[in-house]
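re: ur question from the group chat, yeah i did fold both. here u go
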Amino acid sequence: MYRNKRRTSVRFFVPVSCLSYQKTEKIPLLLAYIKKKLYLCSEIGGVYVNYYMKSLEQIRKIEAVVLYVAQKFPCGVDYIKLFKILYFAQKDYLVAYGKVLCPDTFKARTFGPVPALSDKVIKLVELQDEDIEQYPDLTEFTDSIRIENQHVFAKKEPNMDYLSKKECEYLDKWYNFCKDKDSIEELSPESHDEAYKKAWERYNIDPQQGSLTLMEIARAGGASEKMVAYIREKELLTADYA
């Protein structure tokens, strides 16, 4: 456990693959392993802490996806509509290819699935949070958007190196589906699928357990059991090498 100046405690949950590091002389190697796996987000007692377990490459990809959608709305896009476009595109892409379009983690909230890291960035910008400097790897992301009246505006073009032609097609598809619909009356209920309902039920029991799993999202989108099994195998491989 490490403490910052505000005496905020942070716990590291070490992957099973690290449990072989049992000897005292192995501790520096273990810390190096942890720092390698975490993106350098905020420094507490000399150790960098990441609350979202996203690599820098994943952060850049999420930023590109958000900017790609936001730039389509010259007058800004409200949070709910932005999040719904991201979720619907994610689900559709996952069903088709067995992999994510956007590496954000969706959490169940009142108006539907919310991409956790994107939501964090938006709140930091909206509130002009003084703690924003504690998140150096989010600086480029926070500098790329503007918030006004709970609407997101793109301040720059997305880095298209992070987006494939096929991914853009899926984002365009769901932009066209959502752009003229009411966010609360139409899109929010549309997003309350089986994946959301399961996560929402868990969230109400334990707020830390409110994330939608990829397998749940895929099933909610109508993925075949063969595709769900493929996603499961990929998830197992990721866990083994985490």
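okk and heres the other one u asked abt
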Amino acid sequence: MPPLDLHNFFLEFQDEDYVIIKFPSWFPDYSPGSDIDIFCKDAGSVARKILRLGNACVADGFEIEVTIQESESHTFIDFYSGEILNFRFDLYQKIPRYAKLRIKSTYFDSILKNRKPRGAGHARADYPLYVPDQSDDLVLRYIEYYEWRHRRPEKIRHLEYVRRAVSDNQVRQRFVERLNEFVSRIPRKELRKHTRLSAGLRKIVRRLKRAIKHSGLLPGFLIRSHLAGRAYGIFVTSIRKVLG
């Protein structure tokens, strides 16, 4: 099965207001299981274009799964090869919620407004790909590190990236300005309250899973619940099989 031609997809996005977050060094030659994060003004429009092109990939053996969560502001479009995830488009229509940081909602539009083009290096046409301004790229990488640093040690790579970039004093100053303008830590008192709430929700999920398992009504029921980094609720993101 040939890999997806990511150039074909992003060529379709030229009239969309979007940015690729944490632009991957491997683009467009991804490995199976890779994903790409995209902030976009109209996630529905971007999703329709992905699916329109994706329909042609079904003939190559791909299966497509769409998951919408968080009041339709976050959409996964997954391309599967059998049971194996081949590639994911991760679309956001607003700033994600974080457990440890408070991000102003206006930051999303500011990132799109200040976006920068970069060459795609396409053999047929060097069309522009859109990425955040350098200072916003650094802020987003720092947010990713700070939120996950205790549970995902590999996120240290984002901090190391930021440290290398801010060795330039002008870059450092702009980064600090943007960070202070849009990002603040959630006070410890609130964090403790959210942690207690999250623990209670985990108990509810465990009880629900046990009840489903022993009911015998829905064998093979599969729920993926994303609690990590989501202290405010449970999002049932996907049910791939209802009857085994």
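fwiw on the second one: The mean pLDDT is 80. The two ends are 26 Å apart (CA to CA). idk if thats what u expected
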